[in-house]
Structure formats: C-alpha cells, structure tokens
C-alpha cells in the first residue's frame, strides 16, 4: 500500500430539522448530500442499508446488562432497534441541539437518554459503556477527527466492551492512490462534504491503533440509491414518497440522479463495511491477525 495511513424506517416521523435545515429556500445545488436526501424523504442513509446494520447489531449481541452509547443517532432508526433489546441503558451523543431535542421527543417514554456533545469529546465517564457504535459518520471526518472519535469510543468502553462501526469503504484493499484520490474528489464535489474513505485494512488498523481488536467484519455493496435497496430500506410507501419528490422538484431530482450515477460509476471501488471490535483483545493469543469479510 503506497498511501500512508491517516489517521424500521417506517416508524420515523418527519424530522423538522432535516427537512427545514439548512433552509427551506436553499437551492438543492447548494445542499450537502445528506440534507438533500433527507429533504427528498429518505430516512435510511447507511451505505450498507438496514441489513448490514442488523448484522452488526447481531454480532454486538446487546442484552439487558449492556450500557450502550451511540454517536450521532440522527433520526433514531438504530436507537429504536437497540431499545427493543431492552439494554440496561442507552445514551445517544448528538452535537446539534435541535436534533437532540427532536430525538428526545421521538424517544420519549423509553429508557433512552440523549446528551449534547461531540463524538470526539462526549463528556461521558471513562469505562461507562459496554457497547459503543456509530454509523455513516467516520467517512466524512478528517484524519485527526477519525482518530479522536475512535479514541473516545475506546475511552468510554469498559474492558471487554464492544465497538461497532458501519462506514463506506474503498475496494479492493490495494486500490491505487490515483483511483482513491479521483473518487474522493468526485464524491466531495458532488455531495458537498469532504469525504475521506479508508480501505478494509486501514479501517481495521484505525481501530487497533486505539486499543481495539477487530473480531468481525461484514460488507455490502454501496447501493444507497438503487431501487432494490430503496425498497428494502424505505418500504414501498417511502420509496414512492422519494420518487414523488424527485418528480415534482426537478432540481432536487437532478442532483439525486447525479449522485446515483456517481455511485454507479465507481461501484467497483465503493462498498460498505461494518466492523465489530473488542477492547482488551489486542495482541491476545488465539485472536487471528486478519479478519476475512464475506463477499
């Protein structure tokens, strides 16, 4: 490797922050990709879809004794899935005050707690969680932020605690620097968010640099905007809602189609990856040095 390593949607009620911010009058050409998709009615923004999230949660094996922390819970899709497992506690760390308040209202009556804070500096006590996870967030962070966020997850975990991520991934593992830079530039330009992806071995190395040993890896195609994935993640009604918004708002539809074209153009080099790692297993005997991801 030549580059040095740097560091159920139907239940969701409309989120006023995602639909009104950063401004109802902002032209779609100026909006960041996630705001754009949210305005079109998309609820599930994970690169591997709900199926890869479910696989990650199965491996995390959350039970009644677990204390769970989620970074950037967003609309609370995964939070609801977690709360059905009845953990001892659930805490979402959200940096946007309005989004945090909306999520508190959405999850009222549950055992969930939502706190204001940054994933890289949550303010929660050391060793206070047995499970920490975050989805579709690290890929959009720079080198320093990635290290800070994973380091914060490690700090929060008790010994033997589990950390899960679900992110975009470069394919194959030995992708050239030229192709890597081309894709990142194209995605950053189209999505209007700085994108700094890693390949599988780099994601694993990032976790292990912070005292976490990867024990499981799952992969899925990056089919965020493909019809079959839309139906699986959004359901028929949700998919029709998105199609309606694209048809009745030409500027919005044009950008979404361009995003889909971009994902398809680089499809052989873009995928989704989920990793689960355990704190305290690094260099322990009996743990394999390489984790094979199913294709």
Strand and helix layout:
Blueprint lengths: L15 H5 L12 H7 L9 H12 L6 E5 L5 H7 L5 E6 L2 H10 L5 E5 L12 E7 L7 H14 E14 L6 H15 L6 E2 H9 L3 E10 L5 H22 L1 H16 L4 E10 L16
Parallel strand pairs: 1-2, 1-4, 2-3, 4-5, 5-6
Antiparallel strand pairs: 5-8, 7-8
Notes on the protein architecture:
The chain is an alpha/beta fold. It has a single domain, classed as Rossmann fold (3-Layer(aba) Sandwich), CATH 3.40.50.150. The protein contains ten helices and eight strands. Strands 1, 2, 3, 4, 5, 6, 7 and 8 form an eight-stranded mixed sheet that branches. Strand 1, helix 4 and strand 2 form a beta-alpha-beta unit. The N terminus is likely disordered.
Unreliable runs: 1-23
Cα gyration radius (Å): 18 Å
The CATH superfamily bears the name Vaccinia Virus protein VP39
Count of discrete alpha- or pi-helical segments spanning 4 or more residues: 10
* Largest beta-sheet details: 8 strands, mixed
Helix and strand sequence: HHHEHEHEEHEHEHEHHE
CATH uppermost class: Alpha Beta
Report the sheet-strand fraction.
Answer: 15-25%
Helix content: 25-40%
Can you give the mean pLDDT? Answer: 85
Shape: globular
Class from helix and strand fractions: alpha/beta
By CATH, the architecture is named 3-Layer(aba) Sandwich
- Number of individual domains: 1
Regarding quaternary structure, what we see is single chain
Number of strands: 8
Kindly, what is the distance between the CA atoms of the first and last residues, rounded to a whole number of angstroms? 21 Å
If you consult CATH, what is the topology? Answer: Rossmann fold
């Amino acid at each position: 490797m030549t580059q040095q390593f740097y560091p159920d949607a139907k239940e969701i009620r409309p989120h006023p922050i995602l639909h009104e911010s950063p401004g109802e009058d902002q032209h779609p050409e100026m909006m960041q990709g996630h705001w754009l998709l949210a305005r079109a009615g998309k609820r599930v923004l994970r690169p591997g879809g709900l199926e890869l999230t479910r696989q990650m949660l199965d491996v995390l094996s959350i039970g009644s004794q677990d204390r769970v922390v989620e970074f950037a819970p967003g609309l609370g899709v995964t939070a609801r899935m977690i709360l059905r497992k009845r953990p001892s506690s659930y805490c979402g760390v959200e940096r946007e005050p309005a989004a945090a308040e909306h999520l508190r209202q959405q999850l009222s009556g549950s055992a969930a707690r939502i706190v204001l804070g940054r994933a890289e500096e949550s303010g929660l006590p050391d060793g206070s969680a047995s499970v920490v996870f975050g989805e579709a967030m690290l890929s959009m962070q720079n080198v320093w932020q990635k290290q800070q966020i994973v380091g914060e997850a490690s700090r929060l975990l008790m010994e033997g605690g589990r950390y899960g991520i679900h992110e975009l991934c470069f394919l194959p593992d030995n992708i050239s620097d030229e192709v890597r830079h081309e894709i990142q530039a194209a995605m950053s330009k189209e999505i209007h968010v700085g994108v700094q992806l890693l390949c599988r071995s780099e994601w694993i190395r990032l976790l292990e640099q912070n005292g976490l040993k990867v024990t499981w890896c799952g992969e899925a195609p990056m089919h965020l905007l493909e019809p079959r994935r839309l139906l699986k993640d959004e359901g028929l009604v949700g998919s029709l809602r998105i199609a309606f918004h694209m048809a009745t708002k030409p500027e919005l539809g044009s950008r979404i189609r361009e995003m889909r074209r971009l994902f398809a153009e680089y499809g052989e080099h873009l995928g989704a990856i989920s990793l689960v790692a355990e704190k305290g297993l690094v260099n322990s005997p009996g743990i394999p040095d390489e984790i094979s991801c199913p294709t």
